[in-house]
Design goal:
The protein has about 160 residues and is an alpha+beta fold. About 10% of the residues have low confidence. A hairpin with a 7-residue loop joins strand 2 and strand 3. The protein is globular, with a radius of gyration of 20 Å. Helices cover about 45% and strands about 20% of the residues.
């Protein structure tokens, strides 16, 4: 009887330990990113493992805050509710690419991610198409990128580590 009690007690302690560990991991993953979205994009570009060809073409990139006039062309809709949004796109490029960060109310993150997925067009460029689209988030910041697989996933990796 005493052995059974000790086993149950140890099992309870282990269960409590694992529950606390899982709760801590969830809290860390919802950590808020501080600073302007433009600064975060710049930091992501600096840390990302990007090809030399991509980096060479970055001289033609423009970074700008989204406005009512640019929302539809960048997000695919003007129905997305955000508090801040910054895009980085090449002005001249033979490749389809865009990188956007949006800051939204935390309770709207999943809704905005779904709106982006539903409205994004991988074929919106003339004569070229993006290979992939990736929409991820950290806290209340949403990562939205379209382009070739290697570039988009390298940027997302740097975003997750930022």
């Amino acid at each position: 009887m005493k052995t059974k009690f000790i086993r149950v007690f140890l099992l309870l302690i282990l269960t409590a330990f694992f529950c606390c560990a899982c709760g801590k991991a969830k809290k860390e993953s919802s950590e808020q990113l501080e600073g302007s979205l433009g600064d975060i994009i710049t930091g992501i570009y600096e840390k990302a493992d990007l090809s030399e060809d991509f980096r060479a073409g970055m001289d033609s990139f423009e970074m700008f805050e989204l406005t009512d006039e640019t929302e539809v062309s960048i997000l695919g809709t003007d129905e997305i509710d955000y508090t801040e949004a910054t895009a980085s796109i090449p002005m001249i490029s033979p490749n389809a690419f865009q990188f956007v960060l949006l800051r939204v109310e935390e309770e709207n993150v999943d809704t905005v991610k779904q709106q982006l997925k539903d409205n994004a067009d991988l074929n919106k460029w003339i004569c070229v198409s993006a290979e992939t689209m990736l929409i991820e988030s950290r806290g209340n910041v949403i990562f939205f990128a379209m382009g070739d697989n290697d570039t988009v996933y390298a940027l997302n990796s740097a975003f997750q580590k930022y």
